[in-house]
Prior knowledge:
With 308 residues, the protein is of the alpha/beta class. The chain has helices spanning 19-31, 36-39, 45-50, 84-95, 115-128, 145-153, 170-173, 179-192, 210-222, 249-261, 279-286; strands spanning 34-35, 55-58, 62-63, 73-74, 99-104, 133-137, 158-160, 197-204, 227-232, 266-269. The strands form two sheets. The chain has an eight-stranded mixed beta sheet, with helices on both faces. Strands 3-4 form a two-stranded parallel sheet. Helix 1 (19-31) runs antiparallel to helix 4 (84-95), helix 4 (84-95) runs parallel beside helix 5 and helix 5 (115-128) runs parallel beside helix 6. This is Lipoyl synthase. It holds the Pfam family LIAS_N.
Amino acid sequence: MDGAGPRPPWLKVRFPASPRFGELLALLRDSELHTVCEEARCPNIGECWGRGTATFMILGDTCTRSCGFCAVKTGRPGTLDTDEPRRVALAIQRMGLRHAVITSVNRDELPDGGARMFAETIRWGRRLSPGTTFEVLIPDFKGDEDALAAVMAARPEILNHNTETVPRLYRQVRPQAVYERSLRVLRRAKELDPGALTKSGLMVGLGETREELLAVFRDLAAAGVDILTVGQYLRPTPAHLPVARYWEPPEFEELREAALAMGFRHVEAGPLVRSSYHAEEQAVAARSDAAGAGMIPLTVRGADPAGG
């Protein structure tokens, strides 16, 4: 059991039995694709899959890093599947998605960290589903700016890179990551493509303080991040980091209000919030009229000028 005790009632989720869930599961199995929803044991999988949305995980199912919070398998990855971008795009087309989210494991052994595969997935997606908007949740590519530039050249509507936690806890939570490097990724992404939205997310419940969280919020705002997500950490297995405490719903609302006051365009904060939870709604809200006249659609940006 976690040091924080049993899960409170607001974290207990019913798994809805939806026909759409079964259809999506069969599609993914037939296509030999992975989702972070399954690999990371996301608590919202029933709701999201029931609505026909999923976050595709490219570059295989084995990560070269060993983060203390993550349930994705760690080890030596297999051979790169160069047909994966096409199969992801076909699945997006068959699902009729208006907004597609693509993430990956870390592939630190690859020269570009897998950046080319992100770009190819977006380009295949645009060919088969020209009306779909694309969000990518990327690793830090070990700070390789050329790798980041390759992703941004494919013109994703949203570039997401999670900071995950506060700097003091990086050694335990993200031992192979660097806080300042993550900030640079987000800042540089905005410089490379000012028209793209940038996004980052954090977990709470690992031992951080409110003051530390607010300091990270300020750093992200200074880096030009548009969308912020904040959710409760849930221990996926006994081998992972324990939950230090469960933050209560009113505390999430306080964090949301504090972040909005710092200038973020949209903040999603709540116990069950994850990076890709309500991703399309987050994007639309971030694109809303600054004067508050109402929501506008997230604009499809089209292929990159280089003709990818």
